[in-house]
């Protein structure tokens, strides 16, 4: 490039700069395109794999874990429906997961399951991982929430959780008491008989006390306290001390949403 | 935790308490660590929201309001009122009190409760369910809030140039806006009104005619100094000190 003097040197350096920029941009574009192609090929391969080997993925826990983590590491959400569009698969509206479960028409339940996981995990701090189905329903259909789901029923939630159990055996619908009150468990802890009984009391009162358990179930007070304290340590119950009698009330945290108007 | 969920009948001059406020165990420190973390987080958020709604600057561990409203005007409810002869802004305060006796920020601080510095907060004492927080738990919540930049200890006498600084942890300044937020707001205002480069007294900055209607009108001096310090650290402000070394004015650079 010949060196120019005066005003013209400015125009020249400007046009050179532009050319460099253009070159740089086209190189970056090329690279981007190559990578996108590679990525989409890989994504498609993942999708095809899921399609061809659903049984293996379903039955082999290790494979399933590896597969899921692989999906996440390349930015593929195995639950998302959009994936199938990108990878130009034949089932346009079905997610990888629904293919896994061999149920192409149940997109709704799969998306619902994702929401249930999110919500259960969010509530675990408060309830230790046990939440009543009707409480979930109340939160998910809350008309004040922008994400509320219209026409949702308890059986929708149950069905969705049953699908979920295939992927994460910790997710499970459990039944408590004579009223067949349904809960969803999102942690590996199994409820024993005593704990189930405590939840039955809480269902009516909001809380249980040692005295209530002794009177109703004829448990020893030592045993009653033991069960309650253990449930506290799992995060299933919150402790409240009655200011007048000093008695400890063990509250079911799902009542946070039931006590809305105050008492 | 969905503590943001509201209760329709708030009983605190319109403040709407979250539903967890009516859950009795919320007032007892939870032995389960995970539940406790959720509990203390909810308390921190509730205190910030409550103070924001009522424009409360500082509260103490007995559940009393220490400082509230527009600082420096007649409506001040504060122990932060500078003592006589402290600095420029104090002199201005006196003028302001006579001139702007009817100042109102439009938030309706006209109830008879206002003006009572030791007004006890219902916040820590839910009479509806007969539960209140123990002082030890309040102290713990305060500590959590300070650690998480939701508040600062209210133990420095800023108007005396930090001469009276103590380790007392009895009360906190609640950051419903952080000093960073206030700093950004002040900076933007000064720049947009073309006052960069000119010296402004602290009084002009928080109570002057020019800043009337701004959100930082009547800003608590503690927060004012902290936010000015933010600007100094960003090399955006210079502080002007009087002969006693007390900050009296500032300039945006």
From TrEMBL, chain A:
Q: Which Pfam families would you find in this protein's record?
A: EAP30
Which InterPro entries does the annotation name? ESCRT-2_cplx_Snf8, Snf8/Vps36, WH-like_DNA-bd_sf, WH_DNA-bd_sf
Q: Which domain of life is it from?
A: Eukaryota
A single Gene Ontology CC term: ESCRT II complex
GO terms (BP aspect): protein transport to vacuole involved in ubiquitin-dependent protein catabolic process via the multivesicular body sorting pathway
Which Gene3D superfamilies does the UniProt record give?
6.10.140.180, Winged helix-like DNA-binding domain superfamily/Winged helix DNA-binding domain (1.10.10.10)
UniProt similarity note: Belongs to the SNF8 family.
Q: What is this protein called?
A: ESCRT-II subunit protein
TrEMBL record, chain B:
Example of a GO biological process term: protein transport to vacuole involved in ubiquitin-dependent protein catabolic process via the multivesicular body sorting pathway
One GO term in the molecular function aspect is: structural molecule activity
**Renumbered residue ranges of the record's region Disordered:** 77-118
Where along the chain is composition biased (Basic and acidic residues)?
107-118
Q: Name one Pfam family in it.
A: ESCRT-II
Name the InterPro entries for this protein: ESCRT-II_cplx_Vps25-sub, ESCRT-II_cplx_Vps25-sub_N, WH-like_DNA-bd_sf, WH_DNA-bd_sf
- One GO term of the cellular component aspect? ESCRT II complex
| Residue ranges with Low complexity bias | 85-100
Q: Which UniProt keywords apply?
A: Protein transport, Transport
According to its UniProt record, which protein family does this protein belong to?
A: Belongs to the VPS25 family.
Q: What is this protein called?
A: ESCRT-II subunit protein
């Amino acid at each position: 490039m010949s060196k120019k003097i005066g005003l013209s040197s400015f125009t020249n350096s400007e046009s050179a700069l532009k050319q460099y920029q253009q070159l740089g941009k086209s190189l970056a574009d090329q690279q981007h395109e190559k990578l996108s192609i590679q990525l989409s090929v890989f994504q498609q391969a993942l999708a095809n794999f899921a399609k061809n080997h659903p049984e293996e993925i379903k039955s082999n826990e290790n494979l399933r874990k590896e597969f899921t983590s692989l999906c996440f590491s390349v930015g593929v959400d195995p639950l998302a429906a959009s994936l199938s569009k990108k990878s130009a698969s034949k089932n346009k509206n079905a997610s990888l997961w629904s293919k896994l479960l061999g149920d192409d028409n149940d997109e709704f339940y799969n998306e619902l399951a994702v929401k249930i996981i999110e919500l259960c995990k969010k509530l675990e701090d408060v309830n230790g991982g046990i939440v009543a189905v009707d409480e979930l329903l109340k939160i998910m259909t809350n008309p004040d929430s922008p994400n509320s789901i219209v026409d949702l029923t308890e059986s929708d939630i149950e069905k969705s959780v049953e699908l979920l159990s295939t992927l994460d055996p910790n997710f499970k619908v459990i039944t408590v008491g004579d009223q067949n009150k349904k809960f969803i468990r999102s942690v590996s802890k199994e409820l024993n008989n005593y704990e189930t009984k405590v939840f039955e009391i809480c269902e009516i009162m909001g809380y249980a006390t040692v005295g209530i358990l002794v009177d109703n179930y004829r448990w020893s007070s030592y045993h009653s306290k033991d069960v309650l304290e253990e449930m506290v340590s799992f995060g299933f119950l919150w402790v409240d001390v009655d200011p007048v009698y000093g008695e400890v009330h063990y509250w079911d945290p799902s009542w946070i949403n039931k006590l809305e108007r105050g008492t | 935790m969905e503590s943001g969920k509201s209760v329709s009948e708030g009983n605190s001059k319109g403040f709407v308490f979250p539903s967890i406020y009516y859950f009795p165990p919320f007032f007892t420190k939870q032995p389960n660590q995970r539940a406790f973390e959720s509990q203390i987080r909810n308390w921190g958020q509730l205190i910030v929201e409550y103070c924001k709604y009522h424009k409360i600057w500082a509260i103490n561990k007995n559940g009393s309001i220490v400082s509230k409203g527009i600082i420096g005007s007649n409506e001040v409810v504060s122990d932060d009122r500078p003592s006589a002869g402290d600095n420029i802004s104090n002199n201005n305060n006196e003028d302001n009190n006579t001139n702007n006796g009817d100042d109102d920020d439009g938030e309706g601080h006209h109830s008879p409760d206002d003006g009572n510095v030791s007004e006890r907060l219902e916040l820590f004492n839910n009479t509806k369910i007969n539960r209140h927080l123990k002082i030890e738990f309040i102290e713990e919540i305060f500590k959590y809030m300070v650690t998480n930049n939701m508040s600062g200890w209210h133990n420095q006498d800023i108007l005396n140039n930090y001469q009276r600084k103590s380790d007392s942890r009895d009360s906190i300044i609640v950051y419903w806006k952080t000093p960073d937020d206030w700093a950004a707001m002040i900076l933007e205002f000064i720049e947009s009104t073309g006052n960069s480069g000119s010296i402004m007294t602290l009084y002009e900055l928080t109570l002057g005619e020019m800043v009337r209607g701004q959100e930082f009108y009547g800003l608590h001096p503690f927060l004012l100094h902290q936010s000015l310090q933010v600007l100094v650290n960003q090399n955006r402000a210079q502080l002007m000190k009087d002969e006693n070394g007390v900050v009296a004015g500032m300039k945006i650079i």
